[in-house]
Amino acid sequence: MNKYAAFIFDNDTITTADIAPEISVDMAYGLKDSVRKLREALGVTTMRKMEKGATIKVYKTTKVNTPEQVGEGEIVPLTKFRRALAQTVELVLKKYRKSTSGEAIQADGFNVSVNETDTKLIAEIGKEIKQGFFALINAGTGTATAGATLQAACANLWAAIQAGFEDVEVEGQTVFFVNPLDAAAYLGTAQITVQEAFGLQYVKNFLGMGTLIISKEIAQGAPVATVSDNLKGAYIAADGELSVFGYSFDDTGLIGVNHSVANDRVSIDTNAISGVKFYAEDLALVFKGSIA
Asked: Could you give the domains of the chain?
């Protein structure tokens, strides 16, 4: 065996056998469109672009006292407010690389062999973004009364949201998150349209209360709900300081992509960078319910 063989070919390099003909897609715009659809489904209208730095500080303002009313001509006491750091959101730059061998390119052509596996890479990046989002949803600390059915549980969640946001200036629609098994009984008899975004199925205007998001990331019997304005998004700009690396990026700078020739391995390397983070302004206003 050639003693240099271990340095010539990595075990994770994509070979001819790994390539299957498929429609080529643009990596950067593909992920951007998927995240845009997810934002639309959730009602998240803006994504904060981090040109420099990767930390977001969320502050919460609370009233400290409630002064008594005074008589005519008397000094009006001060109403005091305190602004304190509620949470720090850390954005992490994630880096990805894959390699397509010369043999695969020769057998199936550049567009098919490279772009098809680029699509798979984008799918993995999107999957990680989605998992991060549902980790946030499942970290909610608010609670709601149990309901006998999905409809009853969601109604109780809606009631908890109305009470929780009563004194908070928050706008936006109510968003429910439920397990597919909990949604199945209701969807089987309801005359409604199920839409899809970012690999998620959702129902607009569910029971006239908000949007219903269906995902296996939510535990069965444990629906979750919040208001869309409580959900925020941010990302590290690939077209900012990181543009020094020569990445191509979509018009939002959400993801950067770079292809390079690896002559030492007779391969084409695909590199991608992305740093997307969803967070809640107040996890206590992400309510967990239950189906009794």
From this structure: 5-135+233-275 (3.30.2400), 141-232+281-288 (3.30.2320)
